Amino acid sequence: MSNMFKKLLILGLIFNTLVFGGFNSVLKKQTFLQPEEAFHIEAVQKDDNIVTKITLADKIHIYQDALKFRIVKPKNVTLSPKLPPAHEVDGEKVYEKGLSVSIPVKEITSRVKGDYTLEVELLGCSDKGICYQPFRKQFSFKGAESGVFDKISSLTHEGNTAKIADVLGKENAFFIIVLFFIFGLLLALTPCVFPMIPILSSIIVSQSGSEKPSVAKAFFTSLVYVVAMALTYTVVGVVAGLVGADIQTAMQNPWVLSAFAAMFVALAFSLFGYYEIGLPASWQSKLSRVSDEAGQKGGFVGTAVMGVLSALIVGPCVAPPLGGAVLFISHTGDALLGGLALFVMSIGMGMPLLLVGIGAGKFMPKPGGWMSVVSQVFGVMMLGLAIFMLSRVLPEWVTLILWALLFLGSALYMGVFDDSDKKPGAKKLIQLFAVALMLYGASLFIGALSGADSMFRPFERFTAPKGTVTAVATDKTGRRGYSIDRLLKEVAASDKPVVVDFGKESCTACKELEEITFPDPRVKEALKRFTFIRVDVTDNTDAEKALLKKYELFGTPNIIFFDKNGKYMPEKSLTGFVKPEDFASHLERIK
């Protein structure tokens, strides 16, 4: 018994040692440092360097290849400073205890103008067996004052109306005038001005009659057109800013658009030679007498009227600078500065039109049969503009039928079915072009009958997967009827940042966003981090007006952002059409 007792005693001691010794240490709950305790980062500017000091807690290490330095504001810039030597552990280069990295200020200021924000990112682990999520810390620094050209270069790519309005309030008048003139020149390179070219060209051709217009007359006609357009933008912007009216919505009224379309149709048939549009003979004689005294012929009143109408038609294209000026006027009441900025912008936008006038007067051949052909081409363009206007209020399938008829009619007029053997040389190429127009017109007609809604995808109903059509229709219906409360509830329900896209059916730029920007693979990938809400304000209800007013939005399209906590970020807002690559980059900068 004594031997058995001794064995049991020994086993008991061994068990006691295991439980209260080794096993107990395993069972004890491990405690780990918080990220802020494990990693301490400092960054200060010393002379010509930004010195970043990273201090690591005991038994903490970070990986060299995961240590990153970048500028995150005012734009994303990756930095590549020289790192101190690291030592190798299990095939990985790591740092322990801490390190110091110097970044030359010149490397930053050569790529970023003005104040900037430096972000340091690292990835580290504890020797106790835990790896932390990537740890980031940001530091703000004062940069060199941006020069005039640097500021202008930055702002000309700005899509945030609030920032443009802020510039109007802070900068001197000379800078503002130069900035908005450059805005205008850049807008002249966009499709905004394209519809105006055939309008102005047709005016010059029709006024020249059987004579070749002089350079002076053609230029003066263009100048009248451009100045009328500029004054229209100025008046519309000032009125919208002072009274808070949504002029763009008013100009999208079906009656207004129909009236404009009717005027273009009337002008088109005039260019086809069915009749002549002119003032009463008594008025023409008086205007001719007055204008002859100035060395010019009559017709400038009609030119000015067309300039006014053209400005109202393509006004939505100039959304960011126009919205910025309107917002500035509404906040400050300074109609003089805001109106002058809009006038100068419009003159810049009209520069190509002035060149059209000079070219028409200098390079236009002698009058002949070609002028009737040119007039007819411009007539077709006028009909296209009329359809473009009506597309904002008509159903998509009706618009497609109108386009189809225009292309089919043009093909017939060009002799698509004429005997090809009787058409020498270049006329056969024209007939080939007529065949292409006929085929495209027929495609649009078939697409319209199938329920398609895009000129670029007339056969989408035949190629789209089953269920796609219903989903799209439901999505459009769900965008209507938004109010402030409804939007804020949806934002609050999201655990991700929120993108809100404001659009309406009559907005061409909105359709471009839907068909070009949002479907882009880069944009779709970037949007996975966000909750995407589309708000359709076509009905223009009181609730929708209040919603636009709350976020100081003038017209559409406008895109606003909320962070993951539901906080509105006005500095991130975008106005107008945004290219896919620019929108994807913008989304990446929103955390």
List keywords for this structure.
55% helix; alpha+beta; four-stranded antiparallel sheet; 591 residues; elongated
Write structural notes for this entry.
The chain is α+β, with helices and mostly antiparallel strands and 591 residues long. The protein folds into 5 domains: 1-30; 35-141, Sandwich (Immunoglobulin-like); 161-385, no CATH class; 395-464; 468-588, Glutaredoxin (3-Layer(aba) Sandwich). Helix content is 55%, strand content 14%. The protein is built from 25 helices and 16 strands. The strands form 4 sheets. The protein has a 5-stranded antiparallel sheet, with no helix packed on it. Strand 10 (124-126) and strand 11 form a beta hairpin. The radius of gyration is 33 Å and the shape is elongated.
